[in-house]
Amino acid sequence: MPEIEVFAPAKVNLALHVTGQRADGYHLLDSLVAFAPAGDRLRFAPAEAMVLKVSGPEARGVPEGPENLVLKAAALYGPGPAAAIHLDKCLPAASGIGGGSSDAAAALRAMARLRAVPLATGPAVVNLGADVPMCLDPRPARTRGIGEELTPVRLPPLPAVLVNPRVEVATPAVFKALVCKDNAPMDEIPAFADAAACIAWLARQRNDLQAPAVALAPVIAEVLAALEALPGCLLARMSGSGATCFGLFESDAAAAAAQERLATTTPAWWSAHGPLGDQAEAAAPRFI
Ligand code: C5P
Hints:
It is an enzyme of class 2 (transferase). ATP binds at residues 92-102. The active site is at 11, 131. Belongs to the GHMP kinase family. IspE subfamily. By secondary structure, this protein is an alpha+beta fold. 30% of the residues lie in helices and 30% in strands. The chain contains ten helices and eleven strands. It has helices at 69-75, 99-115, 123-128, 132-136, 171-177, 195-203, 210-216, 219-228, 252-265, 280-283; strands at residues 4-21, 27-47, 51-55, 82-88, 141-144, 149-152, 158-164, 233-238, 245-249, 270-276, 286-287. Strands 1, 2, 3, 4, 5, 6 and 11 form a seven-stranded mixed β-sheet that branches. Strands 8-9-7-10 form a four-stranded antiparallel β-sheet, sandwiched between helices. Helix 1 packs parallel to helix 2 and helix 5 packs across helix 7. It binds cytidine-5'-monophosphate (C5P). Cytidine-5'-monophosphate (C5P) is lined by residues 26-27, 29, 129-131, 146-147, 171-172, 175.
């Protein structure tokens, strides 16, 4: 069995409308997601039993036991050849950019390759987390249902900065604080001629979880204001249930300069920059 490496990119909700609630409490969403060049890395080496080691800049507090989504995802394939997994954690946990979901999706891709079996799909994957299905093939998509109904969308690369103020926001608490759970879906998505047209369309959409998240963690409003004040920022919005926010910029150079500026003015905040879009190729399992 060869050793393989997988990339788990950050997921960004460019827009997220909450359109209803199911009887089981889960919310119905209409969201446009894209993926960032920032992400976690996972390595799978042949071993006697499934084990997980976590290191890296964001490893603190990430469990290495069976409660980690990576091991839960690997367990979906049942008994068989095992792997020692190393997770290099670069994305902040519980931050609205799907780090745990993307790690689980990466583990599903890697284990399918290791065992030479088809990629897991269906309800078992959704049960790992509502964001796991969209992370399996990290390309831009419109996501509906609780996140499991996927329609591919063509997006131009969007120069972006991601910023997390290092507060953890619990997703259930944000949904609970949401007043209206029956909002209009997103507008129909046109074919975008360029990034400017896409950003103009996005400006007319929303993240319905932003206001309740700001109420729970007011520092999110500071992040959005800091992004909006940076030269070349065309749109600032929160991703998922927060607290990570993204700024979309007029160019890659403006985004890079903005992140550099933030690293100086607010060094305690986590940040990354790069174009949002299709990360499927980067995420594909690679033999090393
Ligand atoms: O599926 P996941 O474990 O990521 O969801 C965490 C929590 O977020 C759920 O228990 C639920 O409270 C909330 N959630 C929701 N509607 C969704 C996704 C998540 O209410 N579509």
